[in-house]
């Protein structure tokens, strides 16, 4: 019961905010006189308009599909390279200058080059997500390998275990907790950069709806798109948090 009380308070605060937004702040009067912020009822009408035409559902579906592709590709690359570099220290030291040089560069900074070579399209948006996801997963995967008990690796070598077997039986399970945490972080990063990528030339998705709303001078469309970006981002966070806890629980039961 104590755990539910903060959630109940959050719900009450949310309802109070929505009521204040609609009725008590003078937003409707301001909006009718040409103000920039629409009341909640106008945003709701925009939701009914876009959902009845299928525009909103299409934008959500396209954004989620790009999110899944970018997160999958970036995470797989980060995990594979991270496990290899974590296992072979000399190789990581050789590549460290390149990693540390590229890691601080914002994925958005690469878009002009991507557009120059490949034009405006899906590739640039997917690249932004993959680039943003790759480095956090890479670094956590390396840390996961480095924190494996060295005695296990020494014992495996003493028994003549080959490198492939060591990877499957020791390295991957030992680094899995770090990888799970990395995927949770990567999911949030991927969603944030997806919206940024869609706002830079893609003609579909939730990010594009924001730009379209700006071009049409429809702040109700902008706020509605922002609302769904937040809701879906929160849902993604909950899903990956649940998966992380499930993985940790399973690993704990196996110990």
Automatic annotation (TrEMBL):
Compartment(s): Cell membrane
Q: Could you tell me what this protein is called?
A: ABC transporter permease
- Per UniProt, residues of the ABC transmembrane type-1 domain are 56-240
What species is this protein from? Answer: Helicobacter marmotae
Family matches, as SUPFAM superfamilies: MetI-like
Q: What keywords are assigned to this protein? A: Cell membrane, Membrane, Transmembrane, Transmembrane helix, Transport
How would you describe this protein's topology in the membrane?
Answer: Multi-pass membrane protein
Name the domain of life this protein comes from: Bacteria
| One Gene Ontology biological process | transmembrane transport
Per the UniProt record, which residue ranges are transmembrane? 67-89, 101-120, 126-145, 166-183, 189-211, 223-243
Q: Which GO terms describe its cellular component?
A: plasma membrane
State the family it belongs to: Belongs to the binding-protein-dependent transport system permease family.
PROSITE patterns according to UniProt: ABC_TM1
**InterPro entries noted in UniProt:** MetI-like, MetI-like_sf
């Amino acid at each position: 019961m104590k755990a539910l009380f903060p959630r109940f308070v959050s719900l009450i605060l949310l309802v109070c905010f929505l009521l204040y937004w609609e009725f008590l702040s003078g937003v409707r009067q301001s909006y009718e006189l040409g103000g920039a912020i629409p009341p909640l009822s106008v945003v709701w009408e925009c939701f009914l308009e876009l959902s009845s035409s299928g525009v909103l559902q299409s934008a959500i579906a396209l954004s989620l599909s790009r999110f899944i592709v970018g997160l999958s590709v970036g995470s797989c690359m980060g995990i594979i390279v991270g496990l290899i570099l974590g296992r072979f220290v000399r190789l990581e030291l050789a590549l460290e200058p390149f990693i540390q040089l590229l890691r601080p560069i914002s994925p958005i900074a690469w878009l002009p080059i991507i557009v120059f070579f490949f034009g405006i399209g899906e590739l640039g948006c997917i690249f932004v997500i993959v680039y943003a996801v790759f480095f956090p997963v890479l670094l956590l995967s390396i840390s996961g390998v480095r924190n494996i008990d060295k005695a296990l690796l020494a014992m495996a070598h003493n028994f003549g275990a080959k490198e492939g077997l060591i990877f499957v039986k020791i390295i991957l399970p030992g680094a899995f907790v770090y990888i799970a945490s990395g995927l949770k972080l990567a999911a949030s990063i991927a969603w944030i950069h997806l919206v940024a990528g869609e706002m830079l030339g893609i003609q579909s998705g939730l990010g594009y709806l924001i730009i379209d709303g700006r071009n049409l001078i429809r702040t109700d469309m902008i706020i509605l798109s922002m609302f769904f970006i937040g809701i879906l981002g929160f849902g993604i966070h909950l899903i990956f948090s649940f998966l992380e806890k499930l993985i940790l629980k399973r690993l704990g039961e196996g110990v």
